[in-house]
Amino acid sequence: MFRQGPSLSVRVTVLTFASLGIAFAYLYTDWFDSLKDQASDFSAPFYWVSDLPSRASDWADNRLMSRGRLIQENEALRTELLVHKRKLQQMASLAAENVRLRQLLNSADMLEDRVIIAELIGIAPDPTIHKVIVSKGSNDGVYIGQAMVDANGLMGQVVQVGARSSQVLLITDTTHALPVQINRNGVRLVAEGVGSLYQLAIRHVSNTVDIKVGDLLVSSGLGQRFPVGYPVAEVVDVHFNPGKPFAQVLARPMAEMNKSRHVLLVFDQPPSEGEN
C-alpha cells in the first residue's frame, strides 16, 4: 500500500504561509538584497528589448521623415521667420519715430510761440504740386496762413482749413515765395520754390550782396505770413556772373520735406476767446 501524504488543504496552507513569509522577508529585511541586484541585472536586457519598438518608431520619425513633411515644416519655419522679421522692422520703425518725436518736442520747447503737433496724413497726388494734408483743422484752432515747421526748419503754410484736417503748401512749391534774411548780416532776400524738395532759388541777388555758401537763411517776418527768425534754408551754391545784373543762388531747405511725419503748427496770433 502507498503512503498518503498531507492533504491538499494542508499543502496550500503551508505554501501560503511560506509565500507570505518570503514576501515579508523580501520587503522588510535585507536577506534578499543580493538576489534583488542580480534580478535587476538579469531583467535589464528584457526591458531594453521590449523598448525596441518604441525606439525604432522614434528613429523612423526623426530619420525617415517624408519629403512632404519636411517641406511642410520648412514652410512653417519660413512663415515664422517672416513674422519675426516684420516685428523687428516695426520695432526699428517705432524706435526711429520715437527719436524724431523727441527732436520735435525739443524743438517745440525752444519756440516761444504756441504750437500744436500734427501728423501728415496725405500728400498731393500731382508730383508738381507740393502740398500735404495734416491731421489738424479749425476744431484745433488752425487758420489760413499758419506756419508749419519740423524739428529742423520751416516747411510751409496752411492754405486751406477743414474741421479736422488742413492743406499746407510747402515752401518748395513753384508758386511759393518766402521773405528771408541772411542770419549772418541781416540782408533781406526772397526764397522761391523750384519744384524740388531739396532746393530753393534765391531771386534777384545783386552781384554786390554779401552772401556765401554756408549762410543760414531765416524768415524775416515781412509779409506778416511767417514769424521772424525760423530757419528756412542753407546756401549751397553762389554763382556771380559779371555779365548779368543778378547772381545765381541756390539753397537747401533745412526742414526734411520728404521725411517728416510729425510737424508743428505755429500760432503767432493770440488765441481767440474761449481757447486755452
Folded structure, characterized:
- By secondary structure, the chain is of the alpha+beta class.
- Helices cover about 35% and strands about 30% of the residues.
- It has four helices and twelve strands.
- The strands form two sheets. The protein has a six-stranded antiparallel barrel with strand order 1-2-5-4-3-12. A six-stranded antiparallel beta barrel has the order 6-7-8-11-10-9.
- The longest helix is centred in the first third of the chain and has 44 residues, at about 65-110.
- Residues about 270-275 have low confidence and may be disordered.
Tag the structure with descriptive keywords.
six-stranded antiparallel β-barrel, 276 residues, six-stranded antiparallel beta barrel, alpha+beta, disordered C terminus, 2 domains, Thrombin, subunit H, 12 strands
CATH superfamily of the largest domain: Rod shape-determining protein MreC, domain 1
**Over the alpha carbons, how many angstroms does the gyration radius reach?**
44 Å
The CATH architecture of the largest domain is Beta Barrel
Instruction: Choose one word for the global shape.
Output: rod-shaped
Query: Into which percent range does the helicity of residues fall?
Result: 25-40%
Total helix count?
4
What is the string of helix and strand elements? Answer: HHHHEEEEEEEEEEEE
CATH top level label of the largest domain: Mainly Beta
Question: In which order are the strands of the major sheet placed?
Answer: 1-2-5-4-3-12
Q: Summarize the main sheet.
A: 6 strands, antiparallel, barrel
- List the domain count as a whole number: 2
Average pLDDT number: 79
